[in-house]
């Protein structure tokens, strides 16, 4: 049974039973508690809590959908037979219209009669005593790792399954068959799961039916840790989720999800030199996920959903680079993804997918080769060296872990993420300590200050000068180059190449860009490298200056690769742009033929003098 037929059967089955078909919502949710849409119920969350009226919005208390979904928790598992980042979640939902008996009967009929599959076994909730387990000793059963909320055993569901002829009904605890909110608070309740066999004879969970009867005051993790409460919902509801990919695996009798027709046309199954099955699966998953994220408006960045997209793009790109085979080129895979899914998801834009991918590729390839060379130099890759490779060259954690082999055996994702978070929060602990690390000279020729307070202002203006040069290039074009600069505690003076006087609009745009980058509170980093490597990275430098073989490059942004501004420089600089405060362009004038000069001050009130 092809996946297109499974889709049609599922929607038709529930439509005939009074459910209104609701289109998939975006992967970028309205719900601020989650980064991406992780389940079909997210767009219906307000109907369970009573904040919205299903009858008013849908004309029914029951809906059915096939929802685009994305789970970042499975990224490290991708490459095995069944884990994915992006997937399609088929689900039926009831907001007070029906409950356990109808939900279980619907599921039984669809699996056994419509799909013709045998149910291996089902699970039901075994209940949770009110006494949580002792966290210090680890004593107690799984079901006791709860919030202390006394939740009874689900004997009703067990009886319904047995009445339908399912003999193998297994009782499990909170960790397995009690659904809780993944982000923060929300509807939740005990579940019952359906298992069927795939082509390898393995029992696979295909459908999870959640009986929403509680409102959880925290996340699922907080509930299990005893830090959240359960309150009865005024209206009980049904929330189900069945992965299309897993159901297709069982229906098509394949051993893995990657052998189903949902992936069949992406890459040839025939061996490609240098491509292991694991790498093939990673690229198949990531290419599909990339296509859907981009088509829902996500762009690569170092924050939020953009950070997830960038990790996927770069990981796939590294494999494309290492394999270097025409059959393994990602644009070919993206085209196949579009051909497979566009009929169901017309928002998929092949042109947009390819444009954003090629743009990211162009930026990343500048440092990829050098980053892979640096990786080879480490005898042991710990969290500090891994973060250096990410920060300086944009090499994702996943790639460092995989290509580092035994050298990364002690490298853990949680440690890397902690390092990343700490880096984002870094601010100067003290002025003297910060500048001591730079080997500060109070009169560098470019930067002049007589005492600590003057130094503070001069440092803020020094970083402002870097932002100013890039903002000028943003507004006036890449023909703008530094012709000289002078920084004091009162102002920065920047000379640049440009043939005419700037308009007031251009000056306003430049000033707005600089202040915007200050408000974004971007980190300022430094990396030392050879002059040739620094030039290849795109770092700007003063053409009149003679530089040594090793140079420092200061960059404004999370990494050198993705920095807004990057320049050859000896420092010092602020730790984060927010430390600058606010700046104003106080003067713009000509100083020589083809050379203009700008003065910028640290004040809100300075008047501009042309």
UniProtKB/TrEMBL annotation:
<dbReference type="InterPro" id="IPR012947">
    <property type="entry name" value="tRNA_SAD"/>
</dbReference>
<keyword id="KW-0648">Protein biosynthesis</keyword>
<keyword id="KW-0030">Aminoacyl-tRNA synthetase</keyword>
<dbReference type="GO" id="GO:0005737">
    <property type="term" value="C:cytoplasm"/>
</dbReference>
<dbReference type="GO" id="GO:0005524">
    <property type="term" value="F:ATP binding"/>
</dbReference>
<keyword id="KW-0820">tRNA-binding</keyword>
<keyword id="KW-0067">ATP-binding</keyword>
<feature type="region of interest" description="Disordered">
    <location>
        <begin position="129"/>
        <end position="156"/>
    </location>
</feature>
<dbReference type="Pfam" id="PF01411">
    <property type="entry name" value="tRNA-synt_2c"/>
</dbReference>
<dbReference type="Pfam" id="PF07973">
    <property type="entry name" value="tRNA_SAD"/>
</dbReference>
<dbReference type="InterPro" id="IPR018164">
    <property type="entry name" value="Ala-tRNA-synth_IIc_N"/>
</dbReference>
<dbReference type="InterPro" id="IPR018162">
    <property type="entry name" value="Ala-tRNA-ligase_IIc_anticod-bd"/>
</dbReference>
<keyword id="KW-0436">Ligase</keyword>
<dbReference type="InterPro" id="IPR018163">
    <property type="entry name" value="Thr/Ala-tRNA-synth_IIc_edit"/>
</dbReference>
<keyword id="KW-0547">Nucleotide-binding</keyword>
<dbReference type="GO" id="GO:0006419">
    <property type="term" value="P:alanyl-tRNA aminoacylation"/>
</dbReference>
<dbReference type="InterPro" id="IPR045864">
    <property type="entry name" value="aa-tRNA-synth_II/BPL/LPL"/>
</dbReference>
<keyword id="KW-0694">RNA-binding</keyword>
<dbReference type="GO" id="GO:0000049">
    <property type="term" value="F:tRNA binding"/>
</dbReference>
<comment type="similarity">
    <text>Belongs to the class-II aminoacyl-tRNA synthetase family.</text>
</comment>
<feature type="compositionally biased region" description="Polar residues">
    <location>
        <begin position="129"/>
        <end position="152"/>
    </location>
</feature>
<dbReference type="GO" id="GO:0004813">
    <property type="term" value="F:alanine-tRNA ligase activity"/>
</dbReference>
<protein>
    <recommendedName>
        <fullName>alanine--tRNA ligase</fullName>
        <ecNumber>6.1.1.7</ecNumber>
    </recommendedName>
</protein>
<dbReference type="InterPro" id="IPR050058">
    <property type="entry name" value="Ala-tRNA_ligase"/>
</dbReference>
<dbReference type="GO" id="GO:0002161">
    <property type="term" value="F:aminoacyl-tRNA deacylase activity"/>
</dbReference>
<feature type="domain" description="Alanyl-transfer RNA synthetases family profile">
    <location>
        <begin position="1"/>
        <end position="606"/>
    </location>
</feature>
<dbReference type="InterPro" id="IPR018165">
    <property type="entry name" value="Ala-tRNA-synth_IIc_core"/>
</dbReference>
<dbReference type="InterPro" id="IPR002318">
    <property type="entry name" value="Ala-tRNA-lgiase_IIc"/>
</dbReference>
